[in-house]
Design a protein that fits this description.
- Two copies of one chain form a homodimer.
- Chain A is α+β, with helices and mostly antiparallel strands.
- The first copy, chain A, has one domain: oxygen-dependent coproporphyrinogen oxidase (3-Layer(aba) Sandwich), CATH 3.40.1500.
- Chain A is built from eight helices and ten strands.
- A seven-stranded antiparallel β-sheet of chain A has the order 1-2-3-4-5-6-9. A two-stranded antiparallel sheet of chain A has the order 7-8.
- Chain A is globular and about 60 Å long.
- At the A-B interface, helix 6, helix 7 and strand 10 of A face helix 6, helix 7 and strand 10 of B.
Chain lengths: ~280, ~280
């Protein structure tokens, strides 16, 4: 890819992640408006607040955060950063052994819901350019009370997004998610899975189209799953169980999540990175 | 040290950790009885519940947990384990390059208080035997609202415990704590410090006496600091700030604490290891 094409690839991927962010935020705000749960009437519908930040060393991002009546805390971050990897990391990242410069853009989303029957979820996709260039990302569902129909619908929509990527893509990316979103010290998965993929170095248009389809799939199915449950009543016991289960999410993110560890150890913005942590958690 | 002496060292160190545990638990239960705060009268004085556990591979421990009116959640664990390090760890632990077998006994304590004016604290000491043998441990204070008199008293008592160990021991172990109990991604210390020490391979009687003095110092000063503040009233704002600050403790423990990482990755008991996590936490 020549320099002009590389710049065009950066411009288009970044624009996509920002567009996807805008559409997701609009969909989530609509759910805030639509909620009719008795408890929800005590709170005004939530709205996203956006806060830009600059990265020392190059680039920055925008943190989007909403504390609403459906979404107790949801963060949607877009960042586009560039610079030079430290010696420590340069060797670990493809294409950096001779030239440690990089460019990366991506969207990252974590939603924690007020209603214990609404499934929390995570989604992120990114494009990274060093001497090589690739796409990575994933999406998974972390219900407090797993619901078979939700799990099937979530996976079916992701499978559809994977179909044009390759015959075995869904099977591979689902397996990768099962392995990745696992909490070894608890001996349990962190949720009901989804897909996980990285280092997709195929032709740019092919991988970029796939990345967009993953975003579209998430936007299509996840608000639908939240809508299914957001008006259901819940008990104090269910709330207590929800706060306890959120502890597992924190354990996974701080002990095992590669993005979190990588971000914090490369001088990323801790407020943006830790926006994934639940608003309220218990360890009994 | 011959085999008979080694067995005697194991017997004595283990007995000390168990005795210290009993005395600390008694002191904490007394505080539960003594508390006169208005809010405390709604709850009965807490009592420790003890639960033994067995380690696959050798040994085990006893988890001690109290949920009281002064101590919202306090864990005091004693464990005595032995076995063979996995290949992954054998090279990293002194004295295991030729023989990967080990024996370890220790006490570990983390206290989270209900009253935001009472300082949370951590203390642990341990004796480890491989082809080498050594003592390690530490104690630090993590006030929500630092109080200069408390900080001075805590450090003064630890300094006294270090005095007979060596002229510069307190200065070295305090500096070690300042470096260790630091949260890099937040750019802030996790509390007001204390002492931290490891690989103390001096003469057994010398290091064991020091380890006992550290335990005695903690037992002497920490209940006193809790007693100073436990009857003070607090506001909803102070409680909210406390829950937020507890998040920093979780971040440190899961991202950086060597004992936590080591324990979870060597098949330790996750319930005992994660007993250090606060009962209720927020990330706003």
């Amino acid at each position: 890819m020549n320099d002009e094409d590389a710049e065009e690839a950066k411009r288009r991927t970044r624009a996509w992640f920002e567009t996807l962010r805008d559409r997701i935020c609009a969909a989530f705000e609509k759910l805030e408006d639509d909620c009719t749960a008795a408890d929800a009437q005590e709170h005004p519908p939530g709205r996203f607040a956006f806060e830009p930040w600059q990265r020392e060393g190059g680039g920055g991002g925008v943190m989007g955060l909403m504390r609403g009546r459906v979404f107790e805390k949801v963060g949607v971050n877009v960042s586009t950063v560039s610079g030079t990897f430290s010696i420590e990391f340069a060797g670990q990242i493809p294409g950096t052994s001779e030239d440690p410069t990089f460019w990366a853009s991506g969207i990252s989303l974590v939603a924690h819901l007020r209603n214990p029957h609404c499934p929390p979820a995570h989604m992120n996709t990114r494009h990274i350019r060093t001497a090589k260039s690739w796409f990575g990302g994933g999406a998974d569902l972390n219900p407090i009370y797993p619901d078979e129909a939700d799990t099937r619908a979530f996976h079916a929509r992701l499978e559809q997004a994977c179909a044009a990527h390759g015959e075995d893509s869904y099977a591979r990316f689902k397996k990768w998610a099962d392995e990745y979103f696992f909490i070894p010290h608890r001996g349990e998965p962190r949720g009901v899975g989804g897909i996980f993929f990285d280092y997709l170095e195929g032709p740019f248009e092919h991988e970029f189209a796939f990345t967009r389809r993953v975003g579209e799939a998430f936007l299509d199915i996840y608000p639908e799953l939240v809508a299914r449950h957001m008006d259901r009543p819940w008990t104090a016991e269910e709330r207590a169980h929800q706060l306890e289960r959120r502890g597992r999410y924190v354990e996974f993110n701080l002990l095992y999540d590669r993005g979190t560890q990588f971000g914090l150890k490369t001088g990323g913005n801790p407020r943006a990175i830790l926006m994934s942590l639940p608003p309220e958690v218990t360890w009994r």
